[in-house]
Design goal:
The chain has 448 residues and is mostly helical. It has helices at 9-42, 44-52, 54-80, 84-119, 127-139, 141-156, 161-184, 188-214, 229-261, 265-301, 305-341, 347-361, 364-379, 384-408, 410-438. It has two domains: 24-227, no CATH class; 248-448, no CATH class.
Length: 448
């Protein structure tokens, strides 16, 4: 458990972010292995069935993840202030509100799964498989919620190592159960879905036992379920704000993907390969962003205003350093990375993917500002600004489909995100400067 209000900010940020980054790597590794198992054992139709639900599953999970992340901001602030009683009350409230949200999502999916898949234009040949997979994963959403709550609470109090350990356990279990249910029991895509839910359930149980045994100060009682108008508004503002931000980004990506799908199989293949590689490049940014939320929340609670400024500066230095490394990797090894995904692709497909990568990576510096400073503002309780920035991103992706693509073709897609990263990065940067200037120009007590 790390108290992020004391010690060297840059060192703490690096040490806290590293387990989160490793966790992302394991998630990517599991996702890749899961795809191989389904593809080799069940064939392309089953891959298509699972893939056809990806946007819905991602949206569903990100609503829960965003909400829990937002709630954890308040927990981190309570921890930074040393108020363990209010921290337990906050945890009790977040369990209540997150549980209610999960129930609404599960019921909605159960009731509207058929019209939803119809709206997504799911082919008739894979419709029933897709429906089965989505229903099982949705039914297991409560398990996902419990694990994310536990992991979010641990990160809020400065523990990013145990969530990593449990995530590794979950990833390994998932692969083993996939092999058992899909290859041995022959349960098809249902087996893949059950494997995911069961692995997360076991992980949630392990995490719960750890919390009870090693973090007794987090144990809540019936008396902690106290709700006031002020605390409810504060918690819902943070949680729903993050959930909305995550959802807007997902919806924008779905809209943009629909525009890309009309360009033909070669463009889709090139774009998919490039996005896989860019997704890997994004992982350090995501780890730094998650760290900055906790860092800023804890230090705000402790009244460490100068330390917040120094931490944001150090976080940006780390992100800019990674941007430079990523640029070198793409320009030196981009062709090889594309070949790993598309070893038999024609030259024009590889060139298209490589063009996407080389243009996008040049704009990683404004992206670093956008992601890192946006996360910092969330940690400081300024949730409205990130939502507005995400809304701008959604509007721009819609405009890309209706203006940029007809005008520039796929090059319009290539330019789309760099343009919005730059615009939103400048906007977020200006607002962050104004926000930090409004803070007291000294810490409440002690050195930074």
């Amino acid at each position: 458990m790390k108290d992020l209000t004391k010690g060297s900010p840059i060192r703490l940020i690096l040490l806290f972010a590293l387990p989160i980054l490793l966790g992302s790597v394991f998630q990517q590794a599991y996702s890749f292995t899961d795809t191989i198992i389904i593809g080799q054992q069940l064939g392309k139709d089953s891959i298509a069935a699972v893939g056809s639900t990806a946007s819905v599953v991602s949206l569903m999970f990100n609503i829960i993840n965003g909400m829990v992340t937002g709630f954890a901001i308040i927990v981190a602030r309570n921890f930074g202030a040393g108020d363990h009683n209010e921290m337990r009350r906050t945890i009790a409230r977040m369990m209540t509100f997150a549980g209610a949200a999960a129930a609404v999502i599960i019921v909605a999916i159960m009731l509207f799964v058929t019209p939803l898949l119809t709206l997504l234009d799911t082919p008739a040949t894979i419709f029933e498989e897709a429906k089965t997979y989505l229903l099982i994963v949705a039914g297991g959403l409560v398990v996902t919620l419990i694990y994310n709550l536990e992991a979010g609470i641990l990160r809020a109090v400065g523990d990013s190592v145990i969530p990593l350990v449990i995530l590794v356990i979950s990833a390994v279990l998932n692969i083993v159960l996939d092999l058992l249910f899909v290859c041995v029991f022959k349960w098809g895509v249902s087996g893949a879905a059950f494997a995911t839910v069961l692995a997360q359930f076991i992980s949630a149980v392990v995490c719960f036992i750890y919390l009870m045994k090693r973090r007794p100060f987090l144990k809540i009682r019936g008396a902690d379920f106290v709700f006031t108008k002020e605390t409810t508004n504060e918690l819902l503002s943070a949680g729903l704000g993050m959930a909305l931000m995550y959802s807007i980004v997902d919806i924008g990506s779905i809209v943009l993907q629909n525009g890309i799908n009309g360009m033909g199989e070669d463009i889709i293949a090139a774009h998919t390969a490039a996005r896989k590689i860019i997704g890997l490049m994004f992982m350090p940014f995501s780890a730094i962003s998650a760290t900055m939320v906790t860092y800023c929340s804890q230090n705000l609670g402790a009244g460490k205003y100068l330390r917040i400024k120094r931490g944001i500066r150090d976080g940006m230095l780390i992100a800019f350093g990674w941007s430079t490394v990523a640029m070198g990797l793409i320009y030196l090894c981009g062709g090889f990375l594309v070949w790993l995904i598309l070893p038999e692709a024609e030259a024009h497909i590889t060139d298209t993917a490589l063009e996407y990568l080389r243009v996008n990576v040049l704009f990683f510096y404004p992206l670093a500002v956008l992601l890192g400073v946006r996360a910092s503002l969330q940690g400081l309780g300024r949730s409205l600004v990130p939502i507005i920035a995400s809304g701008i991103e959604l509007v721009w992706k819609v405009l890309t489909v209706f203006i940029m693509i007809p005008w520039l073709g796929y090059f319009g897609v290539i330019l789309s995100e760099p343009i919005i990263w730059t615009i939103c990065g400048i906007l977020i940067g200006i607002i962050a400067i104004l926000t930090l200037r409004s803070f007291p120009q000294k810490d409440m007590d002690g050195p930074i």
